[in-house]
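Section 3.1 - Work completed
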Amino acid sequence: MPRPIPDYLRVHREESPVSETAKQEAYPGLTQISQALANLTGFRLALREERQPNKGKRMSQQQVTRGGNTARIELHAAEKQASSAASDALTAESMGGVAGGLEFLLAEIDRLRITLRKQEAELATHIPVIANPSIEDLAERLEAALASAVDVTGADAAGLYVLDDATSQLKLRASHNLPATRLLDPPRPLEGSLADLEALSGHAVVLEDTKLLPHWPCPEEAPSAVCIPISTSTTPLGTLWVYSQTSRDFSLRETNLLEIIAGKLAVDLERDQLISERRTTQKLARQKNQIADRQKAQLPNVKPLVDGWDVSAWTQQGNDMGGDFHDWAVIEDGKLAIFVGDAMDDNFDAVMTSTSLATAVKANCRIAHNAEMMLDRVNRTFWEASAGDHFASLAYAIFDPMLGTMEAGSCGHVQGFAFKHNSVKPLWNPSWPLGSSPEVEPQLATAMLQPGETLALLSSGLSETLEELDGKNWQAKFCDLIVRHMDLPTDRIMRAVQERLNSAAIRINADKTLVLVKRKNDH
């Protein structure tokens, strides 16, 4: 003889045959609607289940689904109504429209329940809600483990409660024999949940009579329950609750079996969490590669077409993407503007800072008539757009191809050297970078380049790399390398510098930029 189900234990038990009321109660309120319509029109509503012939086939949105079955809403006339005149045909036709509308609404309820079930399984491992067929498999595995917990203990229902990221709340993420609406309940605060707190400390908690232990609150109104911790070797994940509709004890053997099942739940959660993290890492790697490719594409790949001048430039980011860049433009009167930027940030911040800086320089290079004006304009733009925690170095040089003159300015740590036939001259000293204040005092320099003489601009990352390789005397060794190759085109000089870097025993992950500008010999 089946045991009666107490009113205070809200669990679902599948029995056969299922009464019409039980079927309709799967959709709260449908019984009341049916009774009200029967009183008003003489027609009542009934759910009729049909086995779905093609289980894998996608069902119409208008069909009500219950498990693997398809359910239709039928109209049943009362006995007195069945023998009524044909004048009730209009009422029957109108009721048919009501039944069709209710089928659509119940189908929508089923769709939302299925989606909620998948999302709760996703959230059990903190996986973002995405279209992923493995989530359905995860939900089934979690529910199968909960069903096993109920079977091995002879209990009636079970629930999986997962901690949030703040470790302050517990949310039901999977259940067995609990109403589907439980998944819609708000999370329980961990504070005050003594049974969960005790379980998360590593102990199984058995509540033989929940009414006698009100200070150990039970999530469901069940006479008896047991709470088992779910955790990995390093991280608590949540708790497993198993409920009984009768007062009883859980033996040591049963709690041991539940701990084994809790271990399986932890493995399932951790496995899907690791898969999710791997997927996220792969997505992040693809995004970084895309950003790195775009950064390379934004660098100029065609030399400026200025007669009598030879320009070569090279930028290499330390970690795929970075904050170094170089560019050039032909401005008014055919003058050549060349600039080197160096964002003093890391990773994505460096990319955003260098992009905004390069955009500001491009926007102002045809307006600012000298290096000092350019640096002032760019600094104001950079200062107004920054929150005060981003800085950048910038060197800007303007060459007059006809006269061979150069006037330049620098803010920050981009270094410059003018290589003359009989001397090497540093152009400026390090200064405050862009973004350090609304007003800047750039380091300015002028030079007259004779045929065969060369100008070099180095980012701070390249300077630091050379200093790491050659020590404090790196400037002398770098300048000697350039002087020994000054008779060659800038491409060959650039290659000599790159070979020096590649010959080093260690690789230094720093953003590196070098720009060489040479006035060609007259012949």
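Second construct:
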Amino acid sequence: MGAQWRAGLWAPSAGSVAVAIGSERSIPLLRGDNGFWEACFPAEEGEDYSFIVDGIRYPDPASRLQVSDVHGPSRLVSGADFEWSHSWRGRSFNEYVLYELHIGTFTSSGTFRAAAEKMEEFAKLGFTAIEIMPISQFPGSRGWGYDGVLPFAPHPAYGSPNDLRQLVNTAQSHGLCVILDLVMNHFGPDGAYLHTIAPEFFNPDRHTPWGAAIDFSQNAVRQFWIDCALMWLNEYRLDGLRLDAVHQIQGEGAPEFMMELGQAVRKLDLGRPLHLIVEDERNEPTLRESGLYAASWNDDFHHAVHTSLTGESQDYYVSFANEPIADLVRALERGHIEEGQPRIGLDTPRGSDCAHLPVTSFINSIQTHDQVGNRAQGERLLTLADEKAVKTAYALLLTAPYTPMIFMGEERGAVSPFQFFADYDGDLAEAVRQGRAEEFAGIAALGESVPDPIDPATFRHSRLDWSPSPAANDWLRLTHQVLAFRQAAIFPLTATSRQHSAAHVVGEKALTAHWQFEAGELIIDLNFGEIGRHALRARTPDFALFDLKRDPYALAVWSKLT
């Protein structure tokens, strides 16, 4: 008869619920308290199943694996057949150097197994963690992953659940932590059957920019997402999660949910530290002050660097384009730039004081999937600015004490684009095409077309180029050199608390920054467009890129352990 399985479904307004095993068996679920339906039944692992709600078949909203696409039956899997090859104790967060990657475009085959083959190389370069863009199953074969509809199930185009476990196993065997990007603020537009199974899951009075808002006032909704997070951490031995756009987790119950989720993760005893990262546009300290969340993405640092190097001032760059060097000074001294103060180009002040937080709680970057992919053509920074300028910004990112993150390809000076792509059919495909074109209507008016997100060629153009070249080798040498310096000189500092930080301009486009930690100090002198009036130092720098006295883009770093 097989193993015993337990089926549960929250469907408060349903009149009847059953679970269908294959095409021949149907087991009715009994309605319990608070809209939950439950039953236990025997079945073989690997059998197909569906929920039947008021006579209509649906995939399991918490499916661990689909038979095929998001519209068909689910499959019974336990994950018990995978053997981890070694123990893993994780890393302290101050040692994180994050590498963000998209499985589908990271390699030519776009699979978990192909990604695993690259892990040794990244560990040797000096990276300590990978952050995988969302892999929860979405419609079609290609997409960024932020329109997932089955949040518990790995996307089958990338491989099987055990292929994902093997990627994690391989990464950790080389000392790399694995963070997974998880979307809890909305579902994609096609295949999210929770809308009909349990319309109570959503708040009809509110919408996110990407679809119906989730109602976090419901205990069952909060538990669904907590169970999802714990599943990924437990069943795939992840080191943590990056939670997408938590500023859209709003409404009654949302603050309580964020605390309940953090507490549930903290209670896990898995023999390794677990780290929660958020994307949060609000620049508020609350989640990080709770001690439950390790860090937040810090777009402010990116915007200051980007406007300095490109001169761009459109859209969300408006408030950062006025005094980008002064903003960069503030980012290096405090972490965030916008902390509630009035700013030119900002209609409503944003943020609160966060300078008291640990430096590791700010994840800085100069490129991300968002900042590259949300451009009309998906251009990387190297195609928009001078190479020496970009190298200097890259070295600054990796030598400043804040937690650095790079986007796949930066380590080798990639210039291949990362464009927006999806795989929809019919009216939805046309709506996505039109929406993307309208987003960049100003560019279209100038005669430049926006890549068709539905065209498979857009996906292919976004694949990372692994071709060897002298330019790529030069960037790889820089990456290895600066990350070796970070491991030796900065990890010991950020393992202790920051006591003081200060930064100031030493010329219109030059600055100096100084951080004091319990374990010692770190000083960075930077030319970011012109040769600065830097103070004389008593000794040569511990790390340098280009020449501060001669080059308009240059950086020098001094580190001292007490």
